[in-house]
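re: ur msg from earlier - yeah i can do the zinc ion complex, just paste it... oh wait u already did. ok heres what im feeding in:
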Amino acid sequence: MPSYRLAALLIFLICFNSCGIVDAGEPAILTPEKKALVGIVNQRLETDWEAALKIWNLAEPGYREEQSAHLLSQMLSDANFEIEAKVAGIPTAFIASMKIGEGKPVLAFLAEFDALPGLSQTAVPYRQKREGSQYGHACGHHLFGVASTSAAISLAAYMKANKIPGTIKLYGCPAEEGGSAKAFMVREGLFDDCDAVLHWHPSSVNSAGDRSTLARLAAKFRFHGKAAHAAGAPEQGRSALDAVELMNHASQLLREHTPEGTRIHHVITSGGEAPNVVPEFAEVYYYIRHPESQIVKKLYQRLELCAQAGALATETKLEINYQGGIAEFSPTTPWHKSPCET
Ligand SMILES: [Zn+2]
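and the outut:
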């Protein structure tokens, strides 16, 4: 089978699998190859649901997804995939591979399984916090990891049964929610042997689109001031919280003068302990986004000026803890069209 046909099957499979976990119904018209793949996926539905619920309940945050990574690795290992654990020096990153025949082409799926802070939730369709955890799967990474894993296992089984050569890989990618683990994995050259890598994300519709994403830079702005009693000797203090507030005000004003599509958001992660103490330390955590990474870089420089302004006016010291950044997706239209072809 030519590699482009195999690639089309692979894309179809991951798109089908993401809806299969919600609804096992088949699309109306399918080639015999796709029909056979749907059959394999459907046999896995119970196992997949069970695994997804487990990962939902584990709700492990980025870079601490030990049990979720282990669960997915185990599913792949049980299906005779070779597992490389802790790749790129990341304890919860892994690669699973299955070589069939001569092993070419090399096609891969990405799997993610991290949860978000502050979104603890039981498995019910209304807000109900889960006791004992502050983390939750807000955007469906419990499905993401399992569906990709299941797609890799199903496609490998189909290729083996039909003697189609190739290598199927599954990349266990930690910390999608702001941790950018894939950037470190790329830097280690872990994707160098891949002919194609597929990615998907849970959503409210099942489709293959050629949308891009927003590029992002993240940084924590820390201000160091001088503590003093806020009533007894306020003139002795230099408020780190004031610096945060000034920086935030400056960034609100900055918004008006940014290119269309800019997103700036922040949370104050530390703002002092008591009202009667001038805070000697305060921290604000910012994301800045835009569809083009070149524009994000320029915007970030302007955001730093806002931080410097806050420090200057309050006589506090600024420390910037850069949290990393990611570029936007580059859509590949023919790839996105192929799963829609029957
Ligand atoms: Zn997500």
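cool cool. The CA atoms of residues 74 and 328 lie 32 Å apart. ping me if u need the other ligands too
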